[in-house]
Amino acid sequence: MLVYTASLCLLWASCILAAPATKQTRQKVLLISFDGFRWDYDRDVDTPNLDKMARDGVKALYVTPPYLTITSPSHFTLLTGRYIENHGVIHNMWFNTTTTQTKPYYQTQFVNEWWDNGSLPIWITAEKQGRKSGSLHFPGTASTYQGMTPTIKEVEPLLYNYKDETKWRKNADKVMGWFKDLDLDFVALYFGEPDGTGHRYGPDSPQRREMVKQVDRTVGYIRDSAERHGVSNHLNIIITADHGMTDVYRNGLVEEITLSKIPGFAFSDLSFHLVDFGPSGMLLPKPGRLEKVYNALKDAHPHLHVYKKEEMPERLHFAKHERILPIVLWADPGYVINGYFPVQFHKGEHGFDNQELDMKAFFRAVGPAFHKDLEVGPFETVNIYALMCHILGITPEVNDGHLDATKHMLVTSPRPTSGEPVNYLQKVFMGLSAVAGFLLVVFMVVMSHKMLTKKHKNKRLESSKDLTDKEVSKVTSF
Ligand SMILES: *[C@@H]1O[C@H](CO)[C@@H](O)[C@H](O)[C@H]1NC(C)=O
Ligand SMILES: *[C@@H]1O[C@H](CO)[C@@H](O)[C@H](O)[C@H]1NC(C)=O
């Protein structure tokens, strides 16, 4: 009887905590990133498939990427749950300040030490805990981590055409095949658009709207493909992005930021610099020249922010790593930072402060783990890692996110009514659960005690089995 009581308590506890569990019910996760898909890109385009996904699952108003809001750093935050200053992939470009050598985005994918800098992507965490994972084109795929790789991976070839919708569909089918035939638990899938189109034509262009339609068709295709492959029952699909996009002002509209034109500033005071990369920059002054460089730049342009690394606003979480250079620069939306003279001609840009609404990314999720037709408030993308680990039933590595930020989206927690009262309702629920749990335990202890004594008393009068059965029905109807 005591064993029975205890197991009933356990059952009850596991219902409340609801960790996704056993082999048959094990849930899978597909993490998809559409590079540069700003949070509001579905507002001026007809997106029937994204709308259906929102009805069938969860939609966040927007999600906040980490700073620096650029591709590799932000994607690695999705994969590790760490802020950029903690995972170390602080830029799209690898660089060596001694040799002043740099490598562009694609080559940097293959610099193992750049990526494998102490944080593990979720596909490795999953493999280490007996799950099988894969990655297709996701930033960080080319590297190994502590010598490990996912079960299957595919790096895009150099000069890959990121816009080819036929390839998008093939990749979607390939990934669904991995889930089905290789029984993978987790896959990360990356699409390089609408980022490219947003850069080239600007976020408000008809070209960008066309590309969002292509994304929408692909989302429909991906969900159909999951059905066709018979994996949709256990598959959770999370779709998000690394950052947003904003218009760049130029053509004499504004005074551009060009460092060489700033009085008192000289490139000869630097031993290394990383500028001409959108709105962000980092400088390494020569020994003894930090103050000079800093003072020359500090109030030089009303839309240029200049910080010593150790004085960076804490909310940006972009200071602690040794790779971050002693002076950090960033520009307000609409501006980019030029070095010697303007060499940047994008109509759209990102890399700005992650507080800016235009830098926010979109988020949708659908699958057995998620509520249906639920719209939630904003959260930081650093929390998505913990959410995915929870659904997969694996223990996360040390990370900067928390399940509290997203768990109201899960069916294992009560459905929130609206944005703010979520925490309050959850607290009330948890409080009531605790009280109910306590009462249940007290009740069971009392009952089993009573039954034991009764049993002893009545042993001579009737069979104890009948009695136990009666008591059991009493307990289970509680
Ligand atoms: C940069 O290059 C120097 C000189 O070749 C080398 O000693 C150093 O280890 C390199 N640093 C990094 C981080 O690659
Ligand atoms: C991260 O990389 C830096 C060089 O950029 C190196 O000094 C440091 O030891 C690395 N940390 C880990 C944990 O790999």
TrEMBL record:
It comes from the Eukaryota. It comes from Xyrichtys novacula. The keyword Transferase does not apply. Keywords: Membrane, Signal, Transmembrane, Transmembrane helix. Pfam families: Phosphodiest. Residues 1-18 form the signal peptide. SUPFAM superfamilies: Alkaline phosphatase-like. The chain crosses the membrane at residues 428-447. This is Ectonucleotide pyrophosphatase/phosphodiesterase family member 7-like. InterPro entries: Alkaline_phosphatase_core_sf, Phosphodiest/P_Trfase.
